[in-house]
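Can you make up a polypeptide sequence alongside its tokenized fold?
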Amino acid sequence: MAYLWLLAGFVLLVKGADFFVDGAAGVARRFHVPSVIIGLTIVALGTSLPEAAVSITASVTGSNALAISNVIGSNIFNTLVVVGASALITPFLIQRSVIKRDLTFNIFCTVLLFCCIMTGEINRWMGIGFLILLMAYLYVLIRDAMKNPAEKEEEEDQKEPWKLAAFLILGGAAIMIGGDVTVDSAKTIAAQLGMSENLIGLTVVSIGTSLPELVTSITAARKGESGLSIGNAIGSNILNILFILGLSSAISPLTANFFNLIDTGILIAVAILMFVLAWSSPKMTRSKGLFMIALYACFMVYTILR
């Protein structure tokens, strides 16, 4: 029964995020927010909401290992599988500005997280610092977008305000309920199978909550939206650390364990690898995508066997 509840939780998280993104994007279009900002912020935030729901719920209920491992596992999945699968479907180019700004900042955030975990705890002040850093990053994104506005797009059919509000409310409610159901069922399964919360957070929960990123990026790749895949994945990674862990620890300090430290070290290596692959050649080829997916398979085997 717990497995059915876990599946139901994932469905609520994915569909809730889908509705929330549609509603938020519609509001942004109504207020003439540049599309680049929608992609880098609203879409990335929307696809990160399942991780937020799970980690914040886990933090409040005292499941610190699940809260931290969910974010670390999701970030590794986003970098290796989401970007890798997108490149495997349709090779794309990464803009130099994205490499210099976003990939570099992603490495910085991951190293910062590692330093915090080394202390044994992500306390409230660290969480508040993460949130302040996030606001500074969003300011830079908006400033850069205003300096380099995108070409004017054709007007799309705009939804009625009540429909946008319904999408936001229903999406948010589905995400909150899905987060509760996912955490409760994941903890039940972990207890039944003798698995640690850290292991189930790195595997089942992190993959399940990363489904919106995967679906969004693969859809973008199939439509030939160059660069949107990595923008969504890396943007979600940054938000996962600064927003999700920042807010979770600001609400309730998170105690870290030794495995969290090891996994964050692996995440740093993955972030640096992504930067090196992009810097050496801005084109994400199918061979690079296959290599990244193979690395994730190795990570999963290591995680399960350790």
Observations:
- DSSP finds eleven helices and four strands in the chain.
- The chain has a mean pLDDT of 81.
- The CA atoms of residues 69 and 296 lie 16 Å apart.
- The radius of gyration is 18 Å.
